[in-house]
Amino acid sequence: MAQRRVGAGTSRVLAGSPSLDAALSGLRESFYAQQLHGVVGLAAAERAVRETVLWQLRVVAGWLPATGTGMARAVAGTFEIENIVALAHQFDGGPRAPEPFQMGALGTAWHRLESTTSAGDLAAALHTTSWGDGSGGTPAALGPGMLGTVLRVVWARRLAAMAPPARPWCGALCVLTAARCVGDGGVTAPPQLLHLLRPVLGRSWESAGSLGDFRAALSPSLHMVLRDLASPRELWRAEARIHFDVEKDAFGLLRHSMPGPDVVLGAMMVLSMDAWRVRAALAAAAAGAGASEVLDEAA
What we know:
Structural class: mainly alpha
Shape: globular
Number of helices: 17
Distance between the termini: 22 Å
Strand content: under 5%
Helix content: 55-70%
């Protein structure tokens, strides 16, 4: 399944396409083609790419013994987060939530959350699910954006607890999340987020007043996530490099692991990172940029 990916080289070619339609034409023979058929616009194309990956994860889960389904469910948690945050946006006065991602057996809580009718109902329901550790308060109080941030840290910690090879990825995501909370006036983060980050990052970073101070407060194994970044405006570079590192590690799991959970994790993450590359390429083509700075950074 991982061999069906589009790959880094083709993604960079797609990014150089003169238009979104041209880039989509370049995917007609890819394993994204079925979901992409007939889509119009960047948002719909990105959604189709995501749905392709989710379907592949559901297929992988169907092959696994019952004891292995938990890993697939953990990886697929990002789709459940998108469903939750979209519903929170709707309750916060935003647009109506789009059709949710169909999780099937990979869902952990969405079947209980999708029927909520208000921010308060959603918050109460979240508190009783596996997403509840750290999501306290109401989605409206946190704001949908911060709710998504909190849930992504919950997701990263959950995956790291289930799969040891994912621990460096969790650490990197926590560093990036915390760095985005550091401003000239110090750290601005809700208690729920600090509670989740402290087991991974400690507490010393919370007094940082600049990105440099923040990096200096991290352990040597973590400060490299922010290497050579001069300002918070460059954090997108760290995010791109994190995706590259996850992909590199995932290939290593595929090539060097004995048959078992690590190989499965590697395959799922290779597919997930390929979808990230394709979405970045489509965004560049839609903008007529001629290339993708994000993909160049992750090269």
